[in-house]
Amino acid sequence: MEIGIIKKIKASLVLAFVIVGLAGAQRSVYAQVTTAGIDVEDPKSTGAQSLDFSVIPDKSDWVYKTGERATFNIKLFVDGKPVESADLSYMIGPEKMVPTKKGRVTVKDGYAKLEGGTMGEPGFLRCDVRVNVKGKIYKELATAAFEPEKIKPTAVTPVDFDQYWSATIKNSKSVPLGSKLTPIPERSNDLVDVYQAEYHFINNGVQKFYGVLSIPKKEGKYPAIIRFPGAGWLPLSGDQNNAAKGFITLDLYIHGRPVINDKSYYTDLQFNELKNYQYKGSSNRDSFYYKNVVLGCVRSVDLIYSLPKFDGKNVGGWGSSQGGALSIITTALEKRINYFVALCPAMCDFTGYLNNRAGGWPHFFAKPELYQDNQKQVMEALSYYDVVSFAKRIQVPGFFSWGFNDETTPPTSFYSAYNSIKSPKQVFVVPSGIHKIYPPQRDKTYNWLINNLNNN
Q1: Active site annotated at which positions (predicted)?
Q2: For the chain, which residues score pLDDT lower than 50?
Q3: Domain ranges in the chain with CATH number 3.40.50.1820
Q4: Would residue 363 show up in a list of annotated catalytic residues for this protein?
Q5: pTM given for the model
Q6: Among 39, 193, 349, 406, which one carries the catalytic annotation?
Q7: Is 321 a catalytic residue?
Q8: CA separation, residue 161 to residues 158, 167, 229, 279, 348 (Å)
Q9: What pLDDT shows up at residue 35?
């Protein structure tokens, strides 16, 4: 396991500071980053670079043995000076679960220590500390990992899992690919031609899938990279940078709509047809929204193989969050993918919440209204889409990356999938990382993928 240390982005304030006790909770402001094509949260400034507030475990890699006690170190500086005295609120417990310990702690001369306790079994212990600064509540997290590579999944694979997906995929390919490439001249350049790609498959009738396809202009044969999108409704803009380096790149749009309409079209989808799409049809494996998504992703490899400039053998997958899940799922089902990358993958170990621990995004079993009337049916349907079951079937090398402070795709959930993979794998951990992609993660994962595809 490789550990990366990322410098924190500090919240900022321009007003004078008053440190008081916690009276309420206000989440730090985050903005959805759509231009990167992944569903990540990026901290935005909330004031001046004068507030230096952090919570850090006492071990540099944030990793502990079960039974070993963790201590959390708190730092609170204002205008570069330690705060003489301040009363802070804290909560400690297994991630996403009811805190097992909470109270108040006093900062003296800028620092404080919290005894976090331990865990008796593999998992993640989260410390949540909050301070009120002139009417605004600031929150910092630290999540101690207890033997994470020993976490076992709670998800149960259906007996007919392989038969179901084999028959479903075979049927989905019973219609011609019907590919159509529409040039997007405004995104093309001297090195790369960019197209809207359209292709077909069967899922209760003929379905259309779309993506942004970038192809090097220069004559030759090239490896391909398929990028699977994070959750959301806006299509990706294409990966012209890697195409210019000598790769065919395909950025998928999973919602069966063209990728070249104006923004108002997708905004309408956001608030209407695609609202809460991740929960649609979850009581039946054949009506679940992601059935169509998975089949479209699998068929994308046929599209790649149909391209005259494809080298005929080298395909890589890359995705984050929902895209990380789809990267794993597609690689498990489509054996022509040679290498894959998954960052903070979603949809892992859904049933964690039914076993007193965190489950994967979109947190079905943390929301009783989604399953309380038909829990058995929902559990059965989702079992065909849990990334854990696909991870067990991976046969090619993979590269993973994530942060322990991720509140969107809980580390307990994605380690359940990661630990189920038996093929060669490696992970780059940013211990303080939240649900976003940091530059070292992007660089390391793409460099690994590109080097492997070029040297295969």
Answers
A1: 321 (nucleophile), 406 (charge relay system), 435 (charge relay system)
A2: 7-48
A3: 161-455
A4: no
A5: 0.91
A6: 406
A7: yes
A8: 5, 10, 25, 21, 16
A9: 29
